[in-house]
Amino acid sequence: MKKHFILILFLVSISLKAQDNNAQLTATIIGSGSPKFNTERAGPSVLIRYKNTQILVDMGNGTQANLQKNNTKIKDIDGFLFTHHHLDHNEEFAPIFIQSLLGGNKTCIAGPKQTTAIIDKISEIYEEDIAYRLSKSGRSLASVKANYTAKNLTGNIPFYIGEIKISYVPVKHTIASLAYRFDVGEGSIVISGDLTYSKTLPELANNADYLIMDSGGAIALGSKKQMPQGTKRTGNKTTQKAHVNLTESSQMAQEAKVKNLLLTHFNFTQVDEVATTEEIRKHYVGTVLYAHDLMVIPHKEEVHSHDGITHSHSNEHLPKIENSAKETLAIKNNVSIITDKAHDVRIITSNAIPNHTVGQFPTQGNPNKILEQEKQYTIDLTPTLAKQKTHVYDGGIDKGKPSYVFGVAINGVKFEPSANEYFRHAATNEPNYEWTLEPLSDEVNLGEDYNNAHVQPNGEYHYHGTPTGLVASFDKSKMTLVGWAADGFPMYYKMGYKDVMDANSGVIQLKSSYVLRQGERPGDGISAPDGKYSGKYVRDYEYKADYGDLDECNGRTGVTPEFPEGTYYYVVSDEFPSASRCFMGTPSDDFKIGGGRNSTQQRPNRSQQRPQPANTNTPPNFTAILQRMDANKDKKISKGEAKGNLKENFDRRDRNQDGFITEDEMSIRNE
Length: 671
Ligand SMILES: [Zn+2]
Ligand SMILES: [Zn+2]
Ligand SMILES: [Zn+2]
What we know:
CATH class of the largest domain: Alpha Beta
Bound molecules: zinc ion
Shape: globular
Distance between the termini: 83 Å
Largest sheet: 8 strands, mixed
CATH architecture of the largest domain: 4-Layer Sandwich
Strand content: 15-25%
Helix content: 10-25%
Number of domains: 3
CATH superfamily of the largest domain: Ribonuclease Z/Hydroxyacylglutathione hydrolase-like
CATH topology of the largest domain: Metallo-beta-lactamase, Chain A
């Protein structure tokens, strides 16, 4: 007996110790979805945690499964709160409530009106079942009823669960709805619930660290524009607007002056983060984050976003994430490289699945899963040197936004050395395009695996530098082709002939001519980076002609096994720049960022190129506008009928100033 007692004490002390690590208010997104069933996103639910207090806000479909994945036991949860009683937010309440009752923890259950009625009904309907289960441990329903307190929240009196202070305000939705604020220690987190613009929310959320917000209006990856906004017509009935649009969420976040805005409640899987953030930037300048299931805030290691083409993340000071796992993919590599002499082209067709093991994806720093692609690239079979260099960044070799994928490895996986990540202004978060982050730096975390590769949201795996798994089998005593550059010139991995024109001269490891700059960066640390040049930014390196064996584009001209007569060729070096940042020839359009033909992932041009504001120069579909606005069915829109943007821009659109917008006035591009 005494032995047991000591063991118990020991366990208690371990668990107390573990709890000390939780002395920070956190929120775990248990479900980031909506009523629309999605295997990647469970229904709405957030777990708030501080020390050993846990509060679950909303319990949508999949909550129990994700709590299990998160190692959270229902019997350890101290509070259950509802934002509102839409089914997508309380679907799993009944089983969770019953498990909690059986678990015997003291709990607090609260929400808007109907909360106590729901609890009473569930207790009544499942009375026999609950009583039977309780009888197994000699308990009765009456004995456990005292374990929970239930209340319908009215008024505005804050209450506590554990040390966490909970404040709440009503927000506008189609039924009675509440937003909650959790304060404890240094932390503050607000959950908006579902809502339309509500002036109560910015007041509640004033200066909070995080505002977890209804993602209404968020733009899905591959979709052309925002989801419909404003009042929605169903038949002849105008239904009440249920959710915010991005302008409204951006406005509320700005008014509240929150540090981080985390969008959740998505009704699709992949978010066009660039386009969505751009909309939000119209008002709100803080950090914009996108929820995924089991995401934890504050981030221990910030999960960077990656919009499918470019890269962006908000945290500048990240430890390198160890993603050294070596997993074998179920899908097999499939690549064909054919030469078409008649058309003077080389055609690379690939599923973009590597022929080697990969790190773990999704991983911290890279939330995407590797998926098969249908890529086809056409390059020049007989390339020539161009008059001038073309850079993979639009502002030069070391600045601006990414504009080109560099090339494709012989296994069909692309090299994309540029990242759409920059130094950001300390106060406004505005990117400084002069200072592009270098993805291969230890100070920059993009969740890369041991192949210097990671995954875009469309599932495309790609290399930022040396493809370690691919070159592992290369014979280092030979010059070995590793890929093809976008301009048609070959790429070799690090080794080249000692005498550039003599294939029998033996091989040496070729050295790049880039060196780390000495001294301090010129910036003030606010609008441009300061501190010692470390390799964190592309500009931390400078090209020194004749320092190494290679030119500014990390290449040289000579004979190779594939070109015994000689050719210009690029070298993938282990040190900077690894994959080259510029072309000596003319890159094929198939390598423009986001380009390459991909029949399964047709993207709108907007996201293929660098991000542009949403809803730009595409003439709106007039038939759709008529359906939405043409109340008297005269096939034109009068000033009274116009809605939203069209209402605002009516006079400009109405070129002949006759008080109506017709189809041809609508088809003129909006400058
Ligand atoms: Zn909802
Ligand atoms: Zn709702
Ligand atoms: Zn990348």
